[in-house]
Amino acid sequence: MLLLLPPSETKRDGGPGAPLSLGALSFDGLREPREQLTSALVDLAADHDATMRALKLGPRQAAEVARNRELATAPTMPAIDRYTGVLFDALDAPTLDDAAREFAARTVIVHSALFGLVGALDPIPAYRLSHDSRVPGVRLKSFWRDHLAGVLEREPGLIIDLRSEGYAELGPAPARRDSVYVRVVSIDGAGRKRALNHFNKQAKGRFTRAVLARRPELATVDDLIDWAEVEGFSMRLGEDRGATQPREVELVA
Fold this sequence. Notes:
This protein has helices spanning about 30-45, 50-55, 65-70, 80, 85-90, 100-105, 140-155, 165-170, 200-215, 220-230, and strands spanning about 1-5, 75-80, 110, 115-120, 125, 160, 180-185, 195, 235, 245-250. The mean pLDDT is about 95. The strands form 2 sheets. Strands 1, 3, 4, 6, 7, 8, 9 and 10 form an 8-stranded mixed sheet that branches. The protein contains 10 helices and 10 strands. The longest helix has 17 residues, at about 200-215.
């Protein structure tokens, strides 16, 4: 089983770990594109104004430029602890016990626009790069798409894709029976369905925390839906998105 999480724009500063070592990250086959992109981002950060434009930053976000400039020397911390924001606040990874964190190390992947796919406990620095950022000479969608799609295709077992659509496009999950894309929806009193934004992220964070706390062994989509019901989550099959995309599963919040 593999849970794919999106990253967050916001991140904790500092960390107890040594500076970035790309060789310490999961999926070593991604080292070359990681080297290329981190080098390009550090070079871009030498020009403050160009970085502000490329990353679509406002005046209050100017410190993000320094984060990128110091990528090679900044301290690191586990990826699942680095990210903040609605999803990661609901997940609250720093309060997970050792067994849950060890399970996360085996089952949780965070999709970073800078590093590609990273394991939950992979040591990464603070940085700023989004799926829609513009780095000179790099088109992120085409840059990552083939690399990441191939990695995910080779991952065995159930894949639960909790990413936003923007990140899912950077590296599509395989279209197979045991691969699903989770969409968070609400149902009103008249039975009308709508997608959520803020509560979408919160629901995904709570769901991920429940998986890590309970550590179920899920092999099929039916296993996933049945387990979710037992744990108090309403989950059901959604739309069939065609032969080239994973089946959709709806998480009702």
